[in-house]
Specification:
Layout (H helix, E strand, L loop, with lengths): L6 E2 L5 E6 L6 E6 L2 E7 L9 H12 L8 E5 L5 H9 L4 E6 L2 H10 L7 E6 L2 H5 L10 E6 L14 H7 L3 E13 L4 H11 L2 E8 L1 H4 L5 E10 L2 H6 L14 H4 L8 E4 H8 L25
Parallel strand pairs: 5-6, 5-8, 6-7, 8-9
Antiparallel strand pairs: 1-2, 2-3, 3-4, 9-11, 10-11, 10-12
């Protein structure tokens, strides 16, 4: 397999495509030493990273299996999830928002998207693009995936109440928002993200490996949100007020799909886990914490 040369992104970080030595026909996108995406080109329905597997199971469950959906992916990477959606829900209409145009070119060269797939790539900052989407997309998106990283950290401006307020009006009835967060000791950033989502959406859940949720090791936490709140509901609701699983009645089946071990927090249990976390506005937002150097062999 001939792969393109590494490139330098506008941020100054280096992005490169590597061949997976253990999975024939698979590649990995690495940005500044951090593995960001893994794609099995022979079978895009087979996903590798733990958090991507959790997200893919949610995608399988939240609609009738095989049914086409409309999806908006904020953060492109190597387009792992758009490829997964096309493979498992053919005919889906998808849009990807990616800041780095040169990264899109790199990925397209190494792993072109399926020719028949209805996948459009919009170039630009995710938050800026959200504010410019066509009116016809309001209330029409079944799935919004937020997986935005600059290197190994989520930028502050895509983690606030104001950011999620731009997403909420896009959701179709019974639509789903999935957010990938990374955090470690104390889970301060992720707790803040849960509180922030709970101030905008009526149902929120968190899924991760138990030791990550306990803050004993750094890792990914997948957050699920649905049922945008109206202005009156938001005014009445305390940030830590728990909800039932509401429209996400399929949540109990999510853990069965693995990867294991896994734990899901929702309702009162999630509210207790949040402790005193408050919704994060633009004024207080910070980027997610830097992963420990040893995680990716940088130590």
């Amino acid at each position: 397999m001939r792969l393109p040369d590494p490139i330098t992104l506008s941020s100054g970080l280096t992005a490169e495509i590597e061949e997976d030595r253990w999975v024939p026909g698979a590649i990995q996108l690495v940005v500044d030493g951090t593995p960001q995406s893994h794609v099995n080109l022979r079978d895009p329905s087979e996903v590798f990273f733990e958090y991507i597997r959790r997200i893919s199971h949610a995608i399988d469950l939240f609609r009738t299996p095989g049914e086409p959906i409309s999806a908006l992916h904020l953060g492109g990477g190597a387009f792992t999830l758009p490829r997964y959606v096309e493979a498992t829900r053919p005919g889906s209409r998808q849009q990807i928002v990616e800041l780095e145009s040169t990264l899109v070119d790199l990925v397209r060269e190494a792993a072109p998207l399926p020719k028949r797939a209805s996948i459009r790539v919009r170039h630009g900052d995710a938050r800026a693009v959200l504010g410019k989407l066509p009116q016809g997309m309001l209330g029409a998106i079944d799935l919004v995936v937020v997986d935005i990283f600059a290197g190994s950290r989520t930028p502050a401006h895509v983690s606030s109440v104001e950011f999620y307020e731009l997403i909420a009006p896009l959701l179709a009835p019974d639509g789903l928002v999935v957010v990938n967060t990374t955090d470690g000791s104390g889970q301060t950033f992720t707790r803040g993200q849960v509180a922030t989502l709970a101030s905008v959406f009526g149902t929120v859940a968190a899924v991760a490996e138990p030791q990550v949720l306990k803050g004993r090791r750094f890792g990914n936490v997948v957050l699920l949100a649905a049922s945008p709140l109206g202005d009156e509901d938001r005014a009445r609701r305390a940030p830590a007020d728990p909800s039932s699983i509401g429209e996400l009645d399929w949540l109990p089946r999510l853990l069965a799909g693995g990867p294991h071990p896994a734990r899901m927090l929702v309702g009162r249990e999630l509210a207790d886990w949040m402790k005193n976390a408050k919704p994060v506005t633009d004024a207080e937002a910070v980027q997610s914490p830097e992963p420990p150097a040893e995680i990716f062999g940088r130590g």
